[in-house]
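Example pasted here:
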Amino acid sequence: MAPSSTDGTPANEPPPGTQAIGRALTTLKLLAGQETELSVSRIATELELSPGTANRIVRALVAGGLVTHNALTDGYYLGTGAVLLGQAAQRGFGLDRALPVLEQINAETQESVNLAVRESGESVVMLRAQSTLPLRFEQQTGARFPLYTTASGKAILAHSADAEHYLASLPERLPQLTAHTLDTPARVAAQLEQVRRRGYSIDEEENVAGVRCVGAPVLDSDGRAHAAVVIQVPTVRMPRARVRELGVRAVTGAKEIAQFVPINRVMSR
């Protein structure tokens, strides 16, 4: 007889309804990443679902207030319920108190500023204060990139308990996002040591060509990093002399955020 979970479900089978919930969550994530409405047929195609299944999912999400249906276009987009959930999550994480810090750095430097967190092997943008200068790097919250390619990822890794395990898990030759991306775990490890000594990380066009970044770790009481403050600047506006200036500013911003944001909540391994 197969072992069972506490609810009577065989241990090797998901609980009833798990598939439906998973599909609904995937649909919400899909809509969250769009700037325009999506039709049922597009949702079905993107998620590899039948039109009937996709239709049932979006109707349930509309009924729950998480998705809104535009009757004129027959498209779907995130609803007010999703907005309220997002706002509640931001308050719970303290991100509503972190945003003014990013906005202050943005006002002082006129450059784009992010708060990013680690999610497994990626760096994910949680908050952003966008530069208003004509030449700037456009990026959306929710954008994610490999840890080893970003200033945020390197700042976090340099102060993470599992940094050695992460490096050991990487392939001998790392996938390249630009011509400047670090290509071996050994080179990443060397940069992490520099981050520890210097206090901030540098992305030398390693993630996006033409964009140079500095990042500072947001440390908890144990000295571990769960997030990073990052200043992103077009390379033409970021000479070497400015790197240190902005790196120091990122450090002061990260320290300020660390005082009041329970940032360990937003980190997922």
Remarks:
- Confidence is low (pLDDT under 50) at residues 1-11.
- The chain is about 40% helix and 20% strand.
- The longest strand covers residues 225-234.
- The longest helix spans residues 240-258.
